[in-house]
C-alpha cells in the first residue's frame, strides 16, 4: 500500500496513545453531533474518532495519496478533497454545530483557528495539535512575553486549555520542535461590545510595538485627552481581552 507523502508541513503521528488521547479530549456532551478532522493523513487520529458513538466524523484532506489510503482503510468514512481554509463552513456543515480536530499542519495552524473564529457560532469546541510555541501563545494569559495578538484574538471567543506536550520522536518524519495539544471551548461572548474589525486592528497595532507603552503604540488612534488615561501607561501584554475592548471603544469615539 502506498504511504502518503508528507505535505503542507505535515508530520504523521505514529504513537497511538497520543492519537487516542487527542480523540478522547473531545467532549461532545450534546453540544454537537458532527466532527470535522483537518488533514487526517494516514488516519492515525481518525481511527480513534470513527469508533466514538457520540458524534459522526468527516475529514477534509488535500493530498490525493492520503485520500486513497483513507478510502481503503476507512471505507465508511466521508473524506472531502477540499482546502479547509477555502470552505464556506456554514454551507458545508448545513448550519449545524460541529467540532474541529486535527494534528494541524504547522504552516497553516494559526490560519485554521482564525477560520474557526469566523464561524465561532457553529464551532463550540476545537482540539488540535500545534507547534508547542504556537500552542503556548494561543493559551497564554496576560502578563507574559508569550501573550500576544493570537492570544487576544482567539481568547476573545474561546476559553483555552493547554492539555499536553508531544515530543518529536512520535512523528514520521520527526519535526525539529515539540508539539502541544490544546482545547478551545466557546465562551459566552456572542459579540464583542465594540467594532470587531477595529478591535483586531487595535490589538495588532498595540503588539506591533510591544516593548512600548500603549501611549506610544496607539498614539495615532487616540486624542490627547484620552492618552492621559492610566491605561496608556501599560504595555500590551498586560491587558485582558476586556481591556482591549475598552481601548477599541475609545478609538470608536474618535471616528
Description:
- Helices cover 32% and strands 19% of the residues.
- The protein is α/β, with parallel strands linked by helices and 255 residues long.
- It folds into two domains: 12-186, 3-Layer(aba) Sandwich (Rossmann fold); 196-253, rRNA adenine dimethylase, C-terminal domain (Helicase, Ruva Protein, domain 3).
- It has a seven-stranded mixed sheet, with helices on both faces. A two-stranded antiparallel sheet has the order 1-8.
- Helix 8 packs across helix 10.
- The longest helix is centred in the last third of the chain and has 13 residues, at 196-208.
- The chain is elongated.
- Mean pLDDT is 93; it is low at 1-8.
How many β strands by DSSP? Answer: 9
Question: Reading side by side through the largest sheet, how are the strands ordered?
Answer: 4-3-2-5-6-9-7
CATH superfamily of the largest domain: Vaccinia Virus protein VP39
Number of domains: 2
The CATH class of the largest domain turns out to be Alpha Beta
How confident overall, as mean pLDDT? 93
Helix content: 25-40%
Second-tier CATH architecture of the largest domain: 3-Layer(aba) Sandwich
Question: What is the end-to-end distance?
Answer: 62 Å
Give the SSE order as H and E letters.
Answer: EHEHEHEHEHEHHEEEHHH
Amino acid at each position: 500500500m502506498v504511504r502518503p507523502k508528507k505535505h503542507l508541513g505535515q508530520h504523521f503521528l505514529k504513537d497511538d496513545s497520543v492519537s487516542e488521547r487527542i480523540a478522547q479530549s473531545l467532549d461532545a456532551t450534546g453540544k454537537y453531533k458532527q466532527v470535522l478532522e483537518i488533514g487526517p493523513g494516514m488516519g492515525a487520529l481518525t481511527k480513534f474518532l470513527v469508533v466514538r458513538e457520540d458524534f459522526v466524523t468527516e475529514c477534509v484532506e488535500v493530498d490525493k495519496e492520503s485520500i486513497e489510503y483513507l478510502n481503503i482503510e476507512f471505507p465508511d468514512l466521508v473524506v472531502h478533497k477540499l482546502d479547509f481554509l477555502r470552505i464556506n463552513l456554514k454551507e458545508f456543515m448545513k448550519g449545524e454545530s460541529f467540532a474541529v480536530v486535527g494534528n494541524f499542519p504547522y504552516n497553516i495552524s494559526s490560519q485554521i483557528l482564525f477560520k474557526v473564529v469566523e464561524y465561532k457560532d457553529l464551532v463550540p469546541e476545537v482540539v488540535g495539535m500545534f507547534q508547542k510555541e504556537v500552542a503556548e501563545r494561543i493559551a497564554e494569559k496576560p502578563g507574559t512575553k508569550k501573550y500576544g495578538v493570537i492570544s487576544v484574538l482567539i481568547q476573545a471567543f474561546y476559553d483555552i486549555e493547554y492539555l499536553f506536550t508531544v515530543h518529536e520522536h512520535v512523528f514520521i518524519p520527526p519535526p525539529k520542535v515539540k508539539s502541544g495539544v490544546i482545547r478551545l471551548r466557546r465562551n459566552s461572548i456572542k459579540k464583542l461590545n465594540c467594532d470587531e474589525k477595529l478591535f483586531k486592528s487595535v490589538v495588532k497595532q498595540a503588539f506591533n510595538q510591544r516593548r512600548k507603552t500603549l501611549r506610544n503604540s496607539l498614539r495615532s488612534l487616540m486624542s490627547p485627552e484620552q492618552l492621559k488615561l492610566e491605561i496608556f501607561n501599560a504595555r500590551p501584554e498586560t491587558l485582558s481581552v476586556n481591556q482591549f475592548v475598552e481601548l477599541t471603544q475609545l478609538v470608536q469615539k474618535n471616528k
